Amino acid sequence: MVQRQSIEEEDLSECVIVAIDLWKIYRLGKVEYPALRGINMRIRRGEFVAVVGPSGSGKSTLLNLFGALDRPTRGKVIIDGVEISALRSDQLAELRNKKLGFVFQTFNLIPYMSAVDNVEVPMIASGLSPKERRARAMELLALVGLNGFEKNRPNELSGGQQQRVAIARALANDPQIILADEPTGNLDSKSAAEVIDVLHNLNKKGVTIIMVTHNLGLIKHCHRVLWMKDGLVEKEVKQIVAEL
Ligand SMILES: Nc1ncnc2c1ncn2[C@@H]1O[C@H](COP(=O)(O)OP(=O)(O)OP(=O)(O)O)[C@@H](O)[C@H]1O
Ligand SMILES: [Mg+2]
Predict the structure, then answer these.
(1) Whole-number percent of the chain with pLDDT over 90
(2) Whole-angstrom Cα distance, residue 164 to residue 169?
(3) Which residues line ligand 1 (CB under 6 A)?
(4) Which CATH architecture is the domain 45-71+87-238 placed in?
(5) How far apart are CA 25 and CA 12, in angstroms?
(6) Which among 10, 22, 182, 198 is least buried, having the fewest CB atoms inside 10 angstroms?
(7) Ligand nearest to the CA of 59
(8) Looking at the CA of 55, which ligand is closest?
(9) For residue range 127-151, what is the model confidence (pLDDT) as tens digits?
């Protein structure tokens, strides 16, 4: 019994995200809508996990709870050993800024700023000097294959390039975890493949990635696929990751 417990604890220490009996009930007037109905999940350090499932099954809701962008109605989210419901709002902001990187379907870049300025935004509160921020932003843009595009504004970039700027921005403060909600949803298949390439390379460097996607062609690069339905994980498939 004692040994069993210690094995479980060891397992937990390998996990960057743990969800325990996670519920999210939206209330619209008198109507209650349970978007998540008791999710239990463990995401291990270094995993690349795909979350798939029909529209309305709760994928974005789950990612928003993992990212501390919203609070659960019931249950716990533990990020890197810390139960996030216990954190004050300034601690949550720090967690979002330092440990997590977000990538959304609609890129969410600031339209009047250049690519390099967009990437610098999350670093403003980091204590780096303007020169250091610029150098790091240039490095990150090079990492996502955007050498030569640093001065372009979002409307001077293709969708795939904009999403790669968004990934560089998500990496600004060297997060352990990237939460990506349909990162290729607005992209043609070639750009989608380029974006997945970037995410796959980051994962190889140790970044844990959780990606919601409708594109089943992309999940071959993921270690695990979680199939959601009606607010629950209906099934889970472990995969041997295909090399790119
Ligand atoms: N802010 C909200 N208020 C009320 N209901 C919501 C809210 N956000 C989501 N819902 C409902 O919760 C359910 C789950 O929504 P969610 O956005 O998580 O689904 P999803 O799996 O991401 O779908 P999609 O594939 O279309 O993005 C849906 O039925 C949705 O209508
Ligand atoms: Mg969604």
Answers:
(1) 78
(2) 9
(3) 26, 28, 33, 35, 53, 55-61
(4) 3-Layer(aba) Sandwich (3.40)
(5) 27
(6) 10
(7) 1
(8) 1
(9) 899 999 999 999 999 999 999 999 9
